[in-house]
Specification:
Blueprint: H1 4-15, H2 21-33, H3 36-42, H4 50-99, H5 103-106, H6 116-153
Helix pairs in contact: 1-2
Length: about 150
């Protein structure tokens, strides 16, 4: 049987990676004779509150993981929707180009003007309506962007 001091020295050398094969065999044989209860009594006590701190940290990691999954899903969905919208736009433009509408079909007597002032008034009215629609759409996009920015900052 090995003395306790010699066992301590060999154990320290083992954990430092400094033992020879012969020393490791001696240490192994010595450990066979040691009772398991000796190791149980030598364990340091568990700090108070450790379980709660570990549980809290695991919960935080789970929250971070879920946020990452959601943001990844959102990015993928945006790309898919963007590709689908692009395909729909190209298909719509192609379909319209194939139709080749006849200009005479759309010319009504109301849309043909002999008076330049009347034509100018009609054009201004149409451009004002178009400008109003564009501004309304830009305002909606700004509101959506601001809401998204506020959510990120929370």
């Amino acid at each position: 049987m090995m003395e306790k001091s010699e066992l301590d020295i060999l154990t320290e050398k083992f954990f430092n990676g400094e033992t020879t094969d012969e020393e490791e065999l001696r240490l192994h044989e010595a450990m066979k004779s040691v009772q398991p209860s000796t190791f149980l009594s030598a364990q340091p006590p568990v700090p108070d509150g450790l379980e709660q701190r570990l549980s809290r940290q695991i919960d935080q990691w789970n929250i971070i993981e879920k946020k990452t999954e959601r943001s990844t899903r959102t990015v993928v969905m945006r790309r898919v929707i963007g590709v689908a919208a692009s395909i729909a736009l190209v298909a719509g433009v192609g379909f319209m180009a194939l139709q080749k509408p006849d200009a005479a079909q759309f010319a009504n007597e109301e849309e043909t003007f002999n008076d330049p002032e009347a034509a100018s008034m009609k054009a201004e009215k149409a451009l004002a309506k178009f400008s109003h629609s564009i501004n309304k759409g830009l305002e909606i996009m700004d509101n959506a962007t601001n809401k998204k920015t506020k959510k990120r900052n929370k």
